[in-house]
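Continuing the batch. This is chain 6 of the set; chains 1 through 5 are on the previous pages. Same settings as before, nothing changed between runs. Recording input and output for traceability.
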Amino acid sequence: MSFNIADSVSWVGKVDWELRKFHGEEYTTQRGTSYNAYLVRDEKTVLIDTVWEPYGEEFVANLEKNIDLQKIDYVVANHGEIDHSGALSALMCRIPDKPIYCTANGVKSLKGQYHQDWNFQPVKTGDRLNLGSRELIFIEAPMLHWPDSMFCYLTSDKILFSNDAFGQHLASELHYNDLVDQAELYQEAIKYYANILTPFSVLVDKKIKELLALNLPVEMICPSHGVIWRKDPLQIVEQYLKWANAWQENQTTILYDTMWNGTRRMAESLAEGIRTADPLTTIKLYNVARSDKTEVITEVFRSKAVLVGSPTINRGILSSVAAVLEEIRGLFFKNKKAMAFGAYGWSGESVKQISQKLGDAGFTVVNDGLRLTWYPDSQGIKECMEFGRAFAEQLK
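Output for chain 6:
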């Protein structure tokens, strides 16, 4: 399958309706994804990115229906991750001498993964590739989201090929931002940013401002996952600038796991207390052992505050809570407040350990947390509600 997105530019990628996990088992993709590759034809022809490795042979076969492979003059690898470079092995055995344009780190990445000495042509920001009546301008984008990442900009057509930036894991046969369900598009875009790009927010902000300073007119943004931004394409750039600036909404998220429902009852009572103090705030509760962790992380990203609870087990915390705290730690969320809570029978170390982990993850831990023994009685529930109210007051 292919289709034209401009007079001389075609989409030649793959829509993957079946994908449900990404980055190993780390990221859930309930709406599938796409691997977007693009073919630009001028006096010279360039292929920009490929697809995930399992679809490599299919990609090359479909590409050959669009063009004699020998007529491809250049290949651009904006990023070496195998969901974008995975078809290179199948392709380059057919056109082994064609140059591959990528960053210097891209050379390291591609050599490290494929162990091939292809005709690499390292580029840096500002380098240009003449295609005839058009040029490709290369823009390095390190850590958006790998060290090797880059964008390229097509003059004349005013298209930015942004690779992983501005993408979403969203399978669609409609392909364009103005045609798909806007709620789905926004949800997948913020989920993508929260789970993948949050740790690099400072670099995202800097790179976008550098890009805007180039004053390149942009009529279309073509990422490597999801739909193409053709209607008001800079809307997603503006949204990234907001998300990169310690984003938070009027939301508090409560994460917990429970053994015999004591910690669950605490979570619900804390939520009730927060609601009485601030009826307009959004409150979301997740049993992290039973919830989609990619969605949970997205809700943490959206929140101004997070409460995390676990009973004490073996002088520690439940593994599901430990896992989500480790994921949170690696994402470097900014400007968020937090507290810990948990029920226990006889030793009660969990609250202190959760508080420590929240502090290590960069959260402002506002108090020592709340511990209750066994299952909360009416007095315990009242204490939780009071704690919730007090916590909500500290957020105002």
